Amino acid sequence: MYGLSDLSCGGAYMPGVKLGDKVKVHYKGKLESGEIFDSTEDKDPLTFKVGEGTVIPGFEQAMIGMNPGDEKTVKISAIRAYGPYQKQLVVEVDRDKFVDDVEPEIGQRLQVSQPDGKKFVVTVASIEGTKVTLDANHPLAGKDLTFDIQLLELAK
Question: Mean pLDDT throughout 81-109?
Answer without folding.
Answer: 91
